[in-house]
């Protein structure tokens, strides 16, 4: 099978699958290039309300295909950062579903998601120190915001792998599931995500990501959306809310 990113949309959830089984789903240059336009396509689809990123089979992503670093390491790193930033900027909730190795570029992609669920036995590592590569400043800051400076330094300085239990304790993942339960939990959590207010989610995502210039915008959106009135009415009437605000389609 040629290395590729595949995707499908089911019940308002887009699932993007990293497929490169010959190299434990390592990302090639073509795959890094393909991710931002794919995310833009899914972001513009009003039928998509959440996104799951995962790997084919028993591995999430073992990083960048090292053969791509032989030409221009700086160019290869630039492609990875562009893909990471596109994923972080996706305007709807994103979730990484991790089995097996989540290393290097794979860890970059997982960290760029809003939520991370892992199966027992998953291994995580940030490994540029094995290759003499300077980890990007933006990626370092994102990692540190998840796990704190001490764990970020441990991962970056040593390039050692940590297990799912330690990843959970340090905040790198949100939940660890027994073997065989990951898909069920991902389906359950995404059903919850798509049932909630997109207004709340979109505003919270911007605020959590550090944006500080749109407070007035979100106040205006909340005032005109009707979501708050619907949420209160649904609560009082003991029914499921029917939220109507949706993320605007990118121009």
From TrEMBL:
Residues 210-231 are annotated as: Disordered. It holds the Pfam family ECH_1. It comes from the Bacteria. InterPro entries: ClpP/crotonase-like_dom_sf (IPR029045), Enoyl-CoA_hydra/iso (IPR001753), Enoyl-CoA_hydra_C (IPR014748), Enoyl-CoA_Hydratase/Isomerase (IPR051683). SUPFAM superfamilies: ClpP/crotonase (SSF52096). GO terms for molecular function: catalytic activity. Belongs to the enoyl-CoA hydratase/isomerase family. This is Enoyl-CoA hydratase. It comes from Streptomyces cellostaticus.
């Amino acid at each position: 099978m040629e290395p590729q990113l595949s995707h499908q949309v089911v019940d308002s959830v887009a699932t993007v699958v990293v497929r490169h089984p010959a190299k434990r789903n390592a990302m090639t240059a073509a795959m890094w290039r393909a991710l931002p336009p794919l995310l833009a396509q899914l972001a513009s689809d009003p039928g998509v309300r959440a996104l799951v990123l995962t790997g084919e089979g028993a591995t999430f992503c073992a990083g960048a295909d090292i053969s791509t670093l032989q030409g221009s390491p700086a160019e290869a790193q630039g492609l990875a950062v562009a893909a990471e930033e596109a994923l972080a900027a996706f305007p709807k909730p994103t979730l990484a579903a991790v089995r097996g190795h989540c290393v290097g570029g794979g860890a970059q992609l997982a960290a760029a998601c809003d939520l991370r669920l892992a199966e027992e036995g998953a291994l995580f590592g940030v490994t540029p120190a094995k290759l003499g590569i300077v980890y990007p400043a933006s990626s370092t800051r994102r990692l540190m915001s998840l796990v704190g400076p001490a764990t970020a330094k441990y991962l970056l300085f040593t390039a050692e792998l940590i297990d799912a239990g330690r990843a959970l304790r340090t905040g790198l993942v949100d939940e660890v599931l027994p073997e065989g339960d990951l898909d069920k939990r991902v389906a359950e959590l995404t059903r919850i995500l798509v049932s909630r207010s997109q207004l709340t989610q979109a505003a919270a995502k911007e605020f959590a990501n550090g944006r500080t210039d749109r407070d007035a915008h979100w106040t205006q959106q909340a005032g005109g959306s009707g979501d708050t009135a619907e949420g209160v009415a649904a609560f009082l009437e003991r029914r499921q809310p029917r939220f109507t605000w949706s993320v605007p389609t990118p121009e």
